[in-house]
From TrEMBL:
SUPFAM superfamilies tied to this protein: WD40 repeat-like
WD repeat ranges, renumbered to this chain: 111-146
One Pfam family from the record: WD40
Chain's gene name: FBXW4
Alphabetically ordered keywords of this record: WD repeat
Domain of life: Eukaryota
Protein name, per record: F-box/WD repeat-containing protein 4 isoform X4
Length: 325
């Protein structure tokens, strides 16, 4: 961040490296949730039950204005996943529907997309891809006159837990449950819907992929039930990842996030553990257990900025403040 003075950048950098931070709780809710969130500018978007709420950060970045900027509704059941794209929110619901919401207006459209809950969705370049428990992935246009017109239906033979479109807009990757098909990571052509390749080999049954993200057109990261984060470079090999990191306590990894450089953060399935990794090392740098009560919760989603890390658990939204530890 060029706007941050060099002295401040060095101080914050050392805090990340040494694990010095101050923990706080931004939001609480009474009922157990499986929240998902996104950051955009000075706003935070988070799902709670069948709503998506938008909040504005206060200048310190470690607290929120309590009154939501906006509330986006439309699903009959919980929101499972959502993304921000082209001033739209594209949401995936447990009701089998995809919702399209304009961020700065009341415009909302939803349409039936799958026979069971839509677990994941992504949107880039005017194209939406969705994955469902019904063992299919589908491709949709975002154009207003063609909403709900399915371009391709792909039989994945497995529940689809995660999905991501390549930055080149030519293909997309699905992360599946690894129960009905031997490979949990497969890449599909976006224009034809045909299988291009699968990643890795010799996955044990049940090694499902819960989160996957592209860092560049040729590199992507994945994590899931088999407790590993894997880094894939499609230019070198599609059968073997170039680097992997194992969760030391054998916990499922629900989510991951990277700064595109050396920093990697993961969220575990027990006791709200967030781990920071330096991708040049095998062992994790720091672990932050965010559950302070006997109630254990996964980290369902995490995001970070230069100075803060945000983690969504079953009952609250935590912040780790690396600017003012």
């Amino acid at each position: 961040m060029p706007s941050v003075p060099v002295k401040e950048r060095v101080k914050v950098s050392q805090n990340w490296k040494l694990g010095h931070c101050r923990e706080g709780i931004l939001l609480k809710w009474r009922c157990s949730q499986m929240p998902w969130m996104q950051l955009e500018g000075d706003s935070l978007y988070i799902s709670q039950a069948n709503f998506i709420l938008a909040y504005q950060f206060r200048p310190d970045g470690a607290s929120l204005n309590r009154r939501p900027l906006g509330v986006f509704a439309g699903h009959d059941e919980d929101v499972c996943h959502f993304v921000l794209a082209n001033s739209h929110i594209i949401s995936a619901g447990g009701d089998g529907k995809i919702g399209i919401h304009k961020i700065h207006s009341t415009f909302t459209v939803k349409y039936s997309a799958h026979e069971q809950e839509v677990n994941c969705v992504d949107c880039k370049g005017g194209i939406i891809v969705s994955g469902s428990r019904d063992r299919t992935a589908k491709v949709w246009p975002l154009a207003s006159g063609r909403l709900g017109q399915c371009l391709h239906t792909i039989q994945t033979e497995d529940r689809v837990w995660s999905i991501a479109i390549s930055p080149l807009l030519s293909s997309f990757v699905t992360g599946t449950a690894c129960c009905g098909h031997f490979s949990p990571l497969r890449i599909w052509d976006l224009n034809s819907g045909q299988l291009m390749t699968h990643l890795g080999s010799d996955f044990p049954p049940g090694a499902g992929v819960l989160d996957v993200m592209y860092e560049s057109p040729f590199t992507l990261l994945s994590c899931g039930y088999d407790t590993y984060v894997r880094y894939w470079d499609l230019r070198t090999s599609v059968r073997k990842c170039v680097m992997e990191w194992e969760e030391p306590h054998d916990s499922t990894l629900y989510c991951l996030q990277t700064d595109g450089n050396h920093l990697l953060a993961t969220g575990s399935s027990y006791y709200g553990v967030v781990r920071l990794w330096d991708r040049r090392q095998r062992a994790c740098l720091h672990a932050f257990p965010l559950t302070s009560t006997p109630l254990s919760s996964p980290v369902y989603c995490l995001r970070f900025t230069t100075k803060h890390l945000y983690a969504a658990l079953s009952y609250n939204l935590h912040v780790l403040d690396f600017q003012n530890p």
